[in-house]
Amino acid sequence: MVTPSTTSAPLLDVRALSLGFGASQTDLLKGLRYSVAPGETLCIVGESGCGKSVSSLAIMGLLPKGAATITEADIQFRGAPYDLSDTAALRRHRGADIAMIFQEPMTSLNPAFRVGDQIAEAVRAHRPVSEAQARDRAVEMLGRVGIPAPEARMSEYPHQLSGGMRQRVMIAMALANDPALLIADEPTTALDVTIQSQILDLIRDLQAETGMGTIMITHDLGVVAEIADKVAVMYAGTIVESGPAEAIFNDPQHPYTIGLMSSMPRLTGPRERLATVPGTVPTIETMPKGCRFSTRCPFAQPLCAEEPPSRDFGGGHHALCHFAPLNDWLEPG
Amino acid sequence: MPEPILEALNLTRHFKIGGSLFAKPKVLRAVEDVSLSVRQGETLAIVGESGCGKSTLARMLMRLIEPTSGQMTFEGRQIDRAKGRALTELRRDMQFIFQDPFSSLNPRMTVGRLVGEPLETHAPEMSAKDRRAKVSELLAQVGLRPEHADRYPHEFSGGQRQRIGIARALASGPKLIIGDEPVSALDVSVQAQVINLLADLRDALGLTLVVIAHDLAVIRHMSDRVAVMYLGSVVEEGPTDEIFASPRHPYTRALLSAIPVAEHGRARHQIALTGEMPSPLDPPSGCRFHTRCPFAREACRADVPALRVTDTAPGHRAACHFFEEIAAEAPLPRATEGSGRTAAAQARFAMYADALAGGTLRPRETA
């Protein structure tokens, strides 16, 4: 099924993104491809070290210097080329039309400044407004993210706020300049479940109001099911499967997606022994040739040492596997 | 019904905060009047959000901190004031697994020494050779290899480190293990491995487990009974299936309704809670949940509710003045079912489980 939003022109269109690491230039990220349209939510899901955060840091121009080199980048933003080597242009985008929020709001806020001043500073960095206007905007934003008595909260320091309130402040700051694209990296992971649902609702409401595109990076398939229009599943620096949320949840094709979903304890149904994904993620030094999941895949065959093809299941649903769909290729032996 | 192995009666822990020559210190009421009983061979889960006092409770049960008041017994022996030899013996019988496998293992000790250390304390008569053999056996039990004994914690992944922590906890041959968020720092696929390992060890060694966690799906999977905590008190407890099928306390109902479920098209019918948990420095009067409870009435502000038996199953109790009325008037909102997996996808999930269990597959001739 193709949702209407997937057919509109993409806001951010990553046609190819690869990062090399170390002397051997092993691919830290390999040929990533995804897009997000206005008003749409793309969830990038994967486990620690799969590269889901690194890819968005690269797009924001926030990769630490010398850590990795961009070996391939073909990206369009609002229909124009988006050049990852143009640091001045990236700085103009950052916090203006592309904003980012992070997992731990305590480390993203400056503990020595009042939250109101921090939001006002973000406004003044990108807009020619007076201090008073920036302040008014900050109060307005704190109100919009559901912080009670925003005037009074303006003069508080981050440590005086709870985790949920801090994340609301981060969202207020990120959205202060009406970004076209919001990148949210595990925004609810550090929060309790009742607060998490408040923050997800808030992001969804603000998105409906402003029509911004959202890339949500998460490890939690529950969060994905809740808010994603499209999903990209990452494993060891590659997108192994991507497509509309319905296809990923109801008709997953890649063995890693199936393994990940099988590993999750469920809230309903019988309490059976959990299936797992055996072994651990390969390191950059031990990365196998061909399919990167082959060392942990219970279906692995000799052919898997060769680069897997991207199989197309229609409606924008792709999986990187020699043997997808498994039903057609494998039989009990 | 099996005998209780660990019992706590009216356990309370207060912390004094601040204070000076001229100012009275404030009292942080971390745990208030909690009574629990853990039965031989069962897994009891203690669940709650940050700041509910679940970790303080776990540390008291483990005697890592002392209760302000209340009693605890382990196999009938009073342990809340145990010292010296009695405490050492208790430590042999009761062990702890910590949340963070990165900070709970000394980075300067080899895995062999980390796992062997409890043996030096609890079985000092054991020879070095026997100890090494025992360490190998423990490592094998948790799915590690004997040669791992010579390596250091930093050489291992998060899941492997948690296995080391478990081997260390098993070394003294405990009867009961308390895990404080034992799997919450792990990735989903590795988390499943450790959950299975703990279940296997419990069955093989006849262990009793107390698991502190915030992830309700993990708890449902691991536990036989659940105690739900809110702001220092147990608000509901009972058999796991009962708590998930028929929660009675408004807080448990809200907590369960807030969990996002990994199914497409499933609409959550959430019971919204307003605001955040109040400070344990200044807890609300009466029912501590009344400031956020959608059903709060006048009586809730005045009287502290006691845990009362519910109608659903033996051993299911809730601390709410009005849970009968609430259950009758406001039936639990049921989530709309998701659209469900396609038949072909269901077949793939079955193939995955088969292949994991050792079934072999080969490429079809026609392919």
Automatic annotation (TrEMBL), chain A:
GO molecular function: ATP binding; ATP hydrolysis activity
Single GO BP term: peptide transport
SUPFAM superfamilies assigned to the protein according to its UniProt record, in alphabetical order: P-loop containing nucleoside triphosphate hydrolases (SSF52540)
Pfam family, one: oligo_HPY
Membrane topology: Peripheral membrane protein
Keyword terms: ATP-binding, Cell membrane, Membrane, Nucleotide-binding, Transport
Gene3D superfamilies, per database record: P-loop containing nucleotide triphosphate hydrolases (3.40.50.300)
Matches recorded under InterPro entries: AAA+_ATPase (IPR003593), ABC_Ni/Peptide_Import (IPR050388), ABC_transporter-like_ATP-bd (IPR003439), ABC_transporter-like_CS (IPR017871), Oligopep_ABC_C (IPR013563), P-loop_NTPase (IPR027417)
PANTHER family: DIPEPTIDE TRANSPORT ATP-BINDING PROTEIN DPPD, OLIGOPEPTIDE TRANSPORT ATP-BINDING PROTEIN APPD
Protein name as it appears in the record: Peptide/nickel transport system ATP-binding protein
Organism from which the protein derives: Pseudoroseicyclus aestuarii
Automatic annotation (TrEMBL), chain B:
GO biological process, one term: peptide transport
Lineage: superkingdom: Bacteria
Subcellular location: Cell inner membrane
One Pfam family of this chain: oligo_HPY
Membrane topology category: Peripheral membrane protein
Similarity comment: Belongs to the ABC transporter superfamily.
Gene Ontology CC terms, in alphabetical order: plasma membrane
Protein name: Peptide/nickel transport system ATP-binding protein
Keywords: ATP-binding, Nucleotide-binding, Transport
Domain ABC transporter: 6-256
Transmembrane annotation, as ranges: none
Signal peptide positions (record): none
